[in-house]
Design a protein that fits this description.
The chain is α+β, with helices and mostly antiparallel strands and 219 residues long. It has two domains: 80 residues, 3-Layer(aba) Sandwich (Glutaredoxin), CATH 3.40.30.10; 108 residues, Glutathione S-transferase Yfyf (Class Pi), Chain A, domain 2 (Up-down Bundle). Helix content is 50%, strand content 8%. It has eight helices and four strands; from the N terminus they run E-H-E-H-E-E-H-H-H-H-H-H. Strands 2-1-3-4 form a four-stranded mixed β-sheet, covered by helices on one side. The longest helix has 27 residues. It binds glutathione. The site of glutathione has 14 residues, from helix 3 and helix 4.
Length: 219
């Protein structure tokens, strides 16, 4: 099997790298940078029409959208138990958490645009930044409550909902102070201790995002 992951270090493609490593699959990695135009090259647009990572090629077939890739990998490799198939008692929370990761993810993307990718910082909107940081914090708070009741996104144990959400929660720390979310901090420590996560971190590569660790947004 040939597996190629189109990847930006520290970006959403980490979700796929981590899941693949949990499955014992090491892909060939093609690395891009968001700010250098490489994701807008026609060759890449032919694989991912909005010019976004991740895209995953398996034996020449390309899939884009991290949630779709994740569901596909779980469905085609049920022996790992990382998905929750139709009829499974955790099917609904599985789907909810998979997609909730992108409710949070799109808020981070908006803040990244404001703080990292705008060419002219004077174009940044303080109002939008504050609103989005508050909305981000509000979207994370229910996860803190959830992790007060269970160790993973699903009560039944580790799943691909964790590879989707774990990455998202890690990235949220750029805009939200997590000292108010101790259950999530303990969860992220548990995730980081997993051999699959460690192996994925080793493959991730150095960040090429010109980003600070934390932006004080005033939430
Ligand atoms: N919903 C998509 C979002 C993909 C996405 O926006 N990826 C970002 C990196 S985290 C990207 O490629 N950004 C490039 C751009 O916005 O030009 C997914 O989950 O795969």
């Amino acid at each position: 099997m040939t597996t190629i992951l189109h990847h930006v270090p520290g970006a959403r493609s980490f979700r796929i790298l981590w899941l693949l490593q949990e499955m014992g699959i090491t892909p060939e990695i093609r690395t891009y940078a968001i700010q250098d135009g490489s994701l807008r090259h026609p060759d890449f647009l032919a694989k991912s029409p909005a010019g976004r990572i991740p895209a995953l090629e398996i034996d020449g077939e390309v899939i884009y959208e991290s949630g779709a890739i994740t569901e596909y990998l779980c469905e085609t490799r049920p022996e790992f138990g990382f998905g929750r198939a139709p009829g499974h008692p955790e099917r609904i929370p599985f789907l909810e958490m998979m997609h909730y990761a992108e409710t949070i993810g799109h808020l981070i993307g908006g803040l990244n645009l404001q703080w990292i990718f705008l060419r002219n910082p004077e174009d940044r909107s303080d109002t939008v930044c504050k609103l989005d940081a508050r909305r981000l914090q509000g979207a994370i708070a229910p996860i803190e409550a959830l992790l007060g009741r269970q160790d993973y996104m699903l009560a039944g144990g580790f799943s691909a909902a964790d590879t989707m959400m774990g990455f998202t929660l890690t990235s949220s720390q750029r805009y939200v102070r997590f000292d108010r979310f101790p259950n999530i901090l303990a969860y992220l420590d548990r995730m980081a201790a997993r051999p699959g996560h460690r192996a994925a971190k080793a493959l991730d590569g150095p960040s090429n995002l010109p980003a600070r660790d934390f932006y004080e947004v005033g939430a």
